[in-house]
Each structure stands twice: as structure tokens, then as C-alpha cells.
Write a structure and sequence with these properties.
The complex is a heterodimer of chains A (199) and B (150). With 199 residues, chain A is of the alpha+beta class. Among the domains of chain A are: 28 residues; 107 residues, no CATH class. Chain A is built from three helices and ten strands. In chain A, a hairpin with a 2-residue loop joins β1 and β2. Chain B is an all-alpha fold. Chain B folds into two domains: 44 residues, no CATH class; 81 residues, Ribosomal protein L20, C-terminal domain (c-terminal domain of poly(a) binding protein, Orthogonal Bundle). Helix content of chain B is 67%, strand content 0%. Chain B is built from eight helices and no strands. The longest helix of chain B is centred in the middle third of the chain and has 39 residues. Classes of the chains: A alpha+beta (199), B mainly alpha (150). Chains A and B meet through α3, β5 and β8 of A and α4, α6 and α7 of B.
Chain lengths: 199, 150
């Protein structure tokens, strides 16, 4: 505390030499001077916005070109399915645990795509990518039950013992394809009204 | 043993003794030493094993969660970002990937993971999240190069 008062007294003594008290306070602080440049930016925001947009466009164009020439390689995607997220790529088989209505042979498209990527680019959804940008097709190939799980409880010296057996349904899904269906548009506006898709 | 009088009848536990024991012995078949062959030992270890298996199913989920956390944390450390700051930045950017996926991305898709770290760091810097020391590119020049840190 004494140190602080001392430094404050010194500070006040030198105030006349300094331009302002504020400036003197700034000199006292430990932070580097770089962070204290609070002069207003004199930059034309619109020009920067344009430049920024241009950069976005070039990125999108490059991705579109790559997709048009189909040089992007194998795509991967992160989908949300039955409360879980799966990172998938064509040919994968994923396992959905618990009750899930679709039956064997059903072809479904997984719409909740959180992220899609290839060798040179990644599309990140906030939280999901817009509808129709990436289509993920899948087929249900197997519906089975899990192995028998033994639920066993016992308390020592208390004559308490319970044993139950349980099997829960499992569904296997094969991912057929992951495709970018339409070119990226850097100027795309977010949907005006919330989407009417039901998940 | 023949159970003729009443006290011994009470002690008799039915005609299916062989089958009851066999059920336990089948589960104990791969155990070592007398736990495999002696019923009193076998039933003890079988009960213990079944109880462990029941508990283990819950523990497995916790262990996996811990493992994912460790992996994501290691992934963040490469870029000098703490796990909390990373997750907070992602959440504020409406990116709702879970820990399992983030850990998988950190391992198998390093470039995607780097992009996520950059986004998160940028968001944290813009919103002044306390853990972030680095100044935001956003604050210096509004909107320009906001993803090009270093």
C-alpha cells in the first residue's frame, strides 16, 4: 500500500511535466505501450469490407474449382444422429445404439451435417451447414440386439443379490456417399426465417 | 448325503445342485487355480467379476470422456490455447462439436482442427475472453484477415 501511495505521490509531482494525468497513469502501468494505443482507427471500413468479401470469394471460387474438377478427394463429414455425433466418410459403417425406427434396407439422408471437409478445405457449420449444401446418403444394413449384458448387484452379509439380463437393439448404417451438391456462395445470406425442417 | 430328518431337509437346496454349480463353473472356466475348480472359491470370484462388469460399463463412459478431454487439451496445447478458452470460443461461435469429435479431428484431421482453433481464438479475442493474451486482428483492422493469426 505504501509503495502505491509513494508512486502516486511521485506521479502527481511530475504531472506538470507530463501532458496529462492520464498519460502519466499510462506510464505507470505494466502493460506494454502497444496495447495502449487508443487512437481512433482512420480506416475506411467499407473498403476493408469489400476486400474481405473479395478474399472470401476467392476462397469459395478455389473450392468450387476444385470440386468442379473433382480433385477434392474423399470427403468426410461430422453428422449428428440420434443424439450422438459421428465422423464419417463414404463406406463407413456406424452403429446406432438403442431403439431407432428405420428398418433394414431404408435409404436415408443424414441432414444434420455439422462439419464437412476434404484434403484442402473444411466447411464448418454454425451449428449445422445450410440445407442442401452437403448430402450424406446412408443405408440401414442391419438391425440386431447387443450381446447379453448381465446386470448384477450384491451386498456382502446383507442377503441382497439381484441379477438381470438385458439386450438392447442396435442398428448398423452404411454411409453410401458424401457429396457437395451445390457450389459455395460467398454472398449467401442466412435464411430470413428459421428453417421449417423438422429434426 | 441323505436328508432324512427335518433339520437336514431344511439344509437341502434342491435336486438341481449339479446344474446350479455348473452355471457358476462355466463362468469360472478360464480362472486360475482353485477358483476354477472349487465351488466356494468359484462363486466368490464369479460374483465379484459380475459386479465389476456392471460397474465397469458406467466407468467406461467416464474414462472415454476423460480420454477425449486429454486429447483435445493436447491438441489445443500445440497452438498455445487452453482447453477452456478453446471450448468457450467455439460455443460462442455456435460451433457445437462435442469432445469426441474434436479429439478425432485433432488426431486425424489436423488442418480442420487448426481452423477450429483459429476461429475459437479469434472469437475469444474479439469478445475479450480473459485467458486470451493475444490481441485480436479484428480490433486492429476491422474485419480484415481475421483468420490470419501468424
Amino acid at each position: 500500500m505504501s509503495l502505491l501511495t509513494q508512486s502516486m505521490r511521485q506521479l502527481l509531482r511530475h504531472t506538470t511535466q507530463r501532458a496529462t494525468l492520464c498519460g502519466a497513469m499510462r506510464a505507470l502501468s505494466l502493460a506494454p505501450t502497444l496495447q495502449q494505443q487508443n487512437k481512433p482507427a482512420t480506416i475506411d471500413v467499407s473498403a476493408i469490407a469489400k476486400e474481405h468479401q473479395k478474399e472470401c470469394q476467392t476462397v469459395c471460387e478455389r473450392i468450387n474449382q476444385q470440386v468442379a474438377k473433382s480433385e477434392q478427394g474423399r470427403l468426410f463429414a461430422v453428422v449428428h444422429l440420434c443424439g450422438k455425433q459421428f465422423k464419417i466418410t463414404p463406406g463407413d459403417i456406424i452403429l446406432v445404439e438403442g431403439y431407432w425406427p428405420p428398418t433394414i434396407g431404408d435409404e436415408i439422408s443424414l441432414d444434420k451435417v455439422l462439419l464437412a471437409g476434404a484434403r484442402d478445405f473444411t466447411l464448418i457449420g454454425r451449428p449445422i451447414l445450410e440445407a442442401g449444401l452437403v448430402t450424406v446418403k446412408a443405408t440401414i444394413i442391419e438391425k440386431t440386439l447387443t450381446h447379453t449384458k448381465t446386470h448384477f448387484k450384491k451386498k456382502r452379509r446383507k442377503q441382497y443379490m439381484r441379477i438381470n439380463f438385458q439386450r438392447s437393439p442396435n442398428t448398423m448404417i452404411r454411409i453410401n456417399s458424401i457429396e457437395l451438391t451445390r457450389p459455395l456462395d460467398s454472398n449467401a445470406e442466412p435464411e430470413a426465417e428459421p428453417s421449417k425442417r423438422l429434426f | 448325503m441323505v436328508f432324512l430328518n427335518l433339520p437336514l431337509m431344511v439344509r437341502a437346496r434342491g435336486p438341481d445342485e449339479f446344474w446350479r454349480k455348473r452355471r457358476i463353473f462355466k463362468l469360472a472356466a478360464h480362472y486360475r487355480s482353485r477358483t476354477r475348480n472349487v465351488y466356494t472359491f468359484a462363486i466368490r470370484s464369479v460374483h465379484r467379476a459380475l459386479a465389476y462388469a456392471t460397474k465397469g460399463r458406467k466407468l467406461k463412459k467416464l474414462d472415454m470422456a476423460q480420454l477425449w478431454t486429454t486429447r483435445v487439451e493436447a491438441g489445443c496445447q500445440q497452438y498455445g490455447v487452453s482447453l477452456d478458452a478453446f471450448k468457450e470460443g467455439l460455443a460462442r461461435s455456435d460451433i457445437l462439436l462435442n469432445k469426441k469429435i474434436l479429439s478425432e479431428l485433432a488426431i486425424w484431421e489436423p488442418r480442420s482442427f487448426e481452423a477450429l482453433v483459429n476461429i475459437s481464438r479469434e472469437r475469444a479475442a474479439v469478445e475479450g475472453y480473459p485467458d486470451i493474451k493475444r490481441r485480436s486482428a479484428f480490433n486492429q483492422v476491422y474485419g480484415l484477415n481475421n483468420l490470419k493469426l501468424d
